[in-house]
Amino acid sequence: MEFLGAGTVVTGASGGIGDALSRRFHALGARVVVSDVEASGIGALAAELNTTRPNSVLAVVADVASEQGNKELVASARQFLSQDGHSGIDLFFANAGVGSGTLLETTPEAEWNLAFNVNVHAHRWAAKYLLDDWLAAGRGYFCSTASAAGLLSQIGSIPYSVTKSAAVAFAESLSITYGDRGLRVSCLCPQGVNTNMLRQGDSPAVGLASNVVRAAGVVLEPEDVALFVSDAIENERFLILPHPQVAEFEQRKAADRDRWLTGMRKLQARVFGNS
């Protein structure tokens, strides 16, 4: 995919990976709609980027945890990105995510619902309102941010592992079902990235699990991830793994799942204790 002149949308754009992706795509010549549930971060980002290229970035406040929020985001982005004869939304990057939830017995239903709505259903709802135009044009690009946890699971948060695995499966299903009709799909599965989610976690358990990632010395800056992502999209690679060791871990898991599960239980015991 060519970024120059492309119409792109990035959710979860107020910080971290989303902010870095928006800046990178804009630097490559794309027009960008930046979206988040809060106005302040994306408003400042759009204002900054528009100083270098006027009217090239639009900030749209949207709650992607609801179908209506996704519908309105797609409509607003399509209107802005279709101005002056442009082609509309060429690339949609469903980057927004939450890391809430802990164990099965301690996670409230509301946190399960939030995790599914943001980490999975937001992707489905966005694709639902994008698909007709893309299939009619015979082209379109859907990207999502899942996680290495979607391939390998994560100790400390069952909802996070489950929903990120579902996000990977949804991206695979889009590619399988519509790839021969012009839809391109990529799925970003990073390990440790220096974002608020890693530094703080949305729960104490997620924060403790994040300590394991930081101690392993594999934490990347969001800007490094964005560079890796843009190259992957330009080359239309499906699975985007900025941490190469994730591919090795996935191969080990596939080769001997029982051994891998035993290893994960040992890691869990080291991090959280045996209680």
From TrEMBL:
Pfam families: adh_short. The keyword Oxidoreductase applies. Keywords: Oxidoreductase. GO terms for molecular function: oxidoreductase activity. PROSITE patterns: ADH_SHORT. Belongs to the short-chain dehydrogenases/reductases (SDR) family. PANTHER family: 5-KETO-D-GLUCONATE 5-REDUCTASE, ALCOHOL DEHYDROGENASE, PUTATIVE (AFU_ORTHOLOGUE AFUA_3G03445)-RELATED. This is Unannotated protein. It comes from freshwater metagenome.
